[in-house]
Amino acid sequence: MGLRGIGGAIALVALGFAPVLAEGKRPFEIGDLYNLEDLSSPSLSPDGFSVVYAVETRNADADATVSDLYVAPYKGGVATRLTDTPFASEWSPAWSPDGRWIAFLSDRGEDETAQVWLMPAAGGAAPRQVTNLSAGISDFGWAPTSDRLVFVSEGDAPAPEKDSRGRDRPVKPIEIHRFQFKEDYRGYLTDQRQHLYTVSLTDGVVTQLTEGENDAWLPSWSPDGKQIAYVAKTEDARTADRTLNYDIYVIAPEAGATPRQISHFSGTDVDPYWESRPMWSPDSRKLVWLRSGEDKWIYYKPWDMVVADVTTGEESYPAPRDHFVYKPRFSDDGKSIIALVEQPEAMWLARIDLATDKVTYLTSGKRFAYDFDMAAGRTVILDSTDTAPNAISAVEKKLRPISRHNDFLKGVDLHAAEDIKLMSDGVEIHAMLTKPAGYEPGKRYPTIVRVHGGPVYQFSHEFNWDWQVYAANGYAVLAVNPRGSSGRGFDFAKAIYADWGNVDVKDVLAGIDKAVEMGVADPDRIGVGGWSYGSILTNYLIASDTRFKAAVSGAGASNPLANYGHDQYTALYELELGTPWTNLEVYTRTGYPFLHADRIKTPTLFQCAELDYNVPCLGAEQMYQALRSLDIETRFVIYPGQHHGITVPSYLVHRLQQTLGWYNRFMKK
């Protein structure tokens, strides 16, 4: 029996559940992870005739997640596979402005680091490697002349010293003097910095543009070729890590050029984590970017769009306000901004008229957009729904599908989430409820409460393969967006500021009460679980209420006093909670699941990723040890070599099998 069959058989037999499925369809199974194809990075050709994109799959032989490139006709038709590297990946494809080339990132080289590669758009020749820096490449962009690229890299890492036999000597001690000294995926942060470089595609000459003790991110070449915009902090390196004061700079694409600062707001002008680079107007006179609030509000304040004249510095702030916005860019005529705009439980594509501030939504309904691209008057979007993974569509009067992947799901019984509204402390709270396979009105079901990460994030109508597994195994899935979530504006998000585990706990419990009131959730069979802040809130919930029969807490923490200086968020702790020696009461109050672990009666499975500097294993270790000391049923799983986002396919399958098995053990009749 294959992986797909094994995963499904274990789950369904364990619960003793035989769902009534849609006619001719089978249940979604854990092993279907190996069948799913995840699309990303759509890039339209300059003539608008074709779209290139990356497709991520799982290689069971190597037990690795890999990706390849495909190109599909805009008008519809069969996609062509451009790369086929089962043990390597290609991602982030981008057409050259003249349409002759496709550049992309790949780890297909001998040293397996991410480098820029180039292939002819017309085919007929193998891709060739363009860069060769030992630290690898994290981002790149085209020059408008199509003969150069700008890229971001930490350059060449120091080569290991050799002994007399030619073997590597032990690496030198790591010396650190920065305030922020670690970051997930990058590890310990030393003097090595990310800088901008250009590379000539004719002779391979690499030119370094930025230098110094600060990083550079998200480069964007102006259409006239004279400047490159980017994001950086260039204040004193000793204090830069303490703030979120990112700014926009421009620099001429030549050695020795002096950067010029464009934004002067004493807060965040494009956090690199937003993946929304500053973008030029077609005439190279203006830039559009995203700006958040003052530092103390960190990620709670929805960011606004800023349009600035590069010469005069004059700024304007297009609508919409009090919405999280992503990836804004100018329309081809420069009269509008096209951007992704968050809605309650959704993300839509919008056009904002710069003269009138009128917002016209180009997509709508229960769907979540991740990315888009425009060229030659055409627009493509990458989005998903409850029952369909990410797909690429043409944005016309109606969305018209372009990509054709995941057709196997046509034969699978999938379940959409319905929207629920409820009141908690006089505040309207939104939630989503996915009913189980074979749902019968009037019958109550074991219910898994999913808790989202962030904390400033929200559950939306997007494809969640784990929800489909739970539904296929007879569980209702309840996803509450409590206060602290995004999608509802600044006041709603900041309701949990420096007060985690208070009103958000109340809101999730109110959501459970609503699902019970609706006659769907069985009050005697409620489970809860989440990852990242979803795990943190899970720990708050089980320390506040004993109704839960089982909990799964992944990549979480419950003792900010211990995490201060141990994870990557020290600056954010100080901005929101203060320092432990000045605000000890806040740290102990927000650490109540660990400091009052004796309140917890729920059997809890803890999980973590070994190399996670975002939410390190320390948090799971402490909670596991506390429950083990209290003789509460518990288990602890560590995923070796993984960062905050787990990528090894067998680990993803194992995590969901363990999670489902834990719920089955304590929640089945």
From TrEMBL:
Official protein name in the record: S9 family peptidase
Top-level lineage group: Bacteria
Keyword Hydrolase in annotation: yes
A GO term, aspect molecular function: serine-type endopeptidase activity
Domain Peptidase S9 prolyl oligopeptidase catalytic: 462-668
Keyword terms, alphabetized: Hydrolase, Protease, Serine protease
Matching InterPro entries: 6-blade_b-propeller_TolB-like, AB_hydrolase_fold, Peptidase_S9_cat, WD40
Any one biological process term the GO annotation gives: proteolysis
Keyword Protease recorded: yes
